[in-house]
Specification:
Layout lengths: L1 H6 L6 H4 L14 H11 L9 H7 L24 E10 L2 E12 L12 E4 L14 E5 L8 E6 L6 E12 L3 E7 L2 E7 L5 E9 L3
Parallel strand pairs: 1-3
Antiparallel strand pairs: 1-2, 2-6, 3-4, 4-9, 5-6, 5-9, 6-7, 7-8
C-alpha cells in the first residue's frame, strides 16, 4: 500500500487506501491518471507475473487506453473459429459442477467470435428460468470486467478440469462481496469475493427452443 501511495504521489498510505474503500470510492472504474501508475507499478510482479492488461481490467477497463483498436493480448482469429461448449451438472444449493472438457464445438455469435478463451456452458437446473432454461447455451466472455445488472458465472478457482460455479444476475458488488439474484425461487443474496474469486461475464445465449 505504501508503494502504491508513493506511485500516486501521495505522502501516506492512507492517500491510496481511499481507492480500496467501497464506501468512499463508489465509481465503477479507477480514473485513468490513477490506473497508469498502478499498472506500471504492479505489472510483471507476482507469481505468475500479472500483465499490464490484467491490471487495467481490474481497474474497470477492457483495454489499455493508449491502444484504441487493439487489445494487447487478444489475437485476431477468423470468424469461422469454433468455441468449446462445456457441460454442467447440479452441485446442490443452486451450484454447478462444470467439466472443462468440451462436449461440443460450435460457431459462436459475432461478439465473441474473436475473443480468446470464449466458451459456452450448457445450462442445467431451473434457478435462472426464464432467462436461461435447461439445454440453453450461455455464451461467456472471460475477459469482460464485472458490471451491475449483467449475468455472470462465478468460480471458486480459475476454471480447469472441473470447477464449482454459480450462474446468477449480478446486481451489485464491492471488493468484499457479490450481490446476486436468481429467479426460481426469487431470491437476492450475497457471496464473498474471497470465496468466489473468479467472475466471467455472460454475454448472450443460444435458446434450446
Amino acid at each position: 500500500m505504501a508503494e502504491a501511495a508513493k506511485a500516486l504521489g501521495k505522502k501516506t498510505a492512507s492517500g491510496y487506501q481511499h481507492y480500496e474503500d467501497s464506501e468512499r470510492f463508489t465509481k465503477q472504474y479507477l480514473p485513468r491518471q490513477i490506473m497508469e501508475p498502478l499498472a506500471a507499478l504492479f505489472a510483471n510482479r507476482g507469481e505468475p507475473p500479472v500483465q499490464a492488461i490484467e491490471m487495467w481490467r481490474l481497474g474497470g477497463y477492457d483495454r489499455i487506453p493508449e491502444q484504441d483498436t487493439v487489445i494487447v493480448d487478444y489475437p485476431v482469429v477468423p470468424r469461422t473459429t469454433l468455441v468449446p461448449v462445456y457441460a454442467a451438472a447440479q452441485g446442490g444449493e443452486g451450484h454447478l459442477i462444470i467439466d472443462f472438457h468440451p462436449i461440443d464445438e460450435v460457431t459462436p455469435p459475432e461478439d465473441i467470435a474473436r475473443v480468446r478463451g470464449a466458451y459456452g456452458i450448457l445450462i442445467v437446473g431451473e434457478s435462472m428460468v426464464p432467462a436461461y432454461r435447461p439445454g440453453d447455451i450461455a455464451w461467456v466472455n472471460p475477459h469482460k470486467p464485472p458490471e451491475r445488472d449483467t449475468d455472470v458465472v462465478l468460480y471458486h478457482v480459475p476454471p480447469n478440469g472441473e470447477a464449482e460455479a454459480i450462474i446468477k444476475m449480478l446486481i451489485g458488488f464491492s471488493p468484499r462481496e457479490w450481490k446476486l439474484r436468481q429467479y426460481q425461487p426469487p431470491k437476492d443474496f450475497t457471496e464473498s469475493t474471497a470465496d468466489w474469486t473468479v467472475c466471467h461475464r455472460i454475454v448472450g445465449k443460444k435458446n434450446v427452443r
